[in-house]
Amino acid sequence: MAELGLISDGAVLVAEGKIVAAGTRADVLRAAESGHDAIVEHDCGGRLVTPGLVDSHTHMVFTAPRLDDYERRLAGKTYAEIAAAGGGIQTSLTGVRAASDAELTAAIQSRLNAARRLGSTTVEVKSGYGLSPEAERKSLRAAAAAARATGIDAPLTYLGAHIVPPGVARAAYVAEVCTELAKGLGADVAPEFADVFCDTAGFTLAESRRILEAARARGLKLKLHAEQFAHSGGCALGVELGAVSVDHLDAVDARDVQLLAASETVATLIPGANMFLGQPYPDARRLIAAGVAVALATDFNPGTCPIQSLPLVMSLACSGMRMSPAEAWTAVTINGAAALDRAAVCGSLMPGKRADLVIFDADDYRAVPYYAGSNLCRAVVHHGEYATY
Ligand SMILES: [Zn+2]
Q1: Are strands 53-55 and 120-123 parallel, antiparallel or unpaired?
Q2: N or C: which end of the chain has fewer CB within 10 A?
Q3: How far is the centre of ligand 1, averaged over its atoms, from the C-alpha of 366 (Å)?
């Protein structure tokens, strides 16, 4: 993770949305001479050019921010007190269920555009604030429509198993989620991944297994929210079932670390949520030392992490978890891509990959996590199209 393959005086040749050549300027100019006419040149002025950032974990299908909850929590109110006052996840459920497809699409679209202005060119989007068959389908439809409208590669994840919705019997809800998965969720939505919140606040290990096996039987790839607040066994379950990623991992044990290191499953850390909730950070150094592939994601959501900026998440990973700047870069590019089963598509500047690049107002890769909270993103090349914001 510490090897970035930095190139000084570099260049990238792009055609038809794909990278044709990347390397030193001399090498790329040589490649450009052979068979490519009408080349448009963008001089980046010696700035840092990186792969487009990959945010592999967001919950951006919601209507309104939860500002009342934020203020209540800072005033010392507990999760239960906030829920009793009409806040918490119920607020987001009510909002999503009442929203039209067009309203939800517009909200997601503006969030995807905001993410791209911060350098993210691939952004996973989870459902999970509908928690009824129709509201979950609506969430996924809206996310797909927003992705089409923005042109952003936004892999969709079905998170019907976020929590058991209030007023619904637990066993009945688990059965409903499994039935929805067995039906393929309906013809109008086609998520690529299924995710489960395996936690005391979400679903038990046995329930998580049942739901994930139903998802796998329909050909969905798997993700898990695992070991966030307590050790639940979700990490080991994810590895066993071949999940593409297990996310959060605040409470992993020695066996989990061994299992991850010996697997293809990516360990996705979410330091933004730890910072926002004022909780200790996961032990990134232990995972990296064991040879685990670590990704970083925002977990952008209205309750526990309203951060959309992967550069800020990199700053938190460096200062809070002692990741090196190079490791943080790997974690938001190629490892983020691997956490979305897209390591062959994006996440590095290699011939044949999608031409997603970010041009930063910096001449050193370490400046991006260093200037914590600044947006140094000057321009984005997305599917080969150059745009400044
Ligand atoms: Zn999450």
Answers
A1: parallel
A2: C
A3: 27
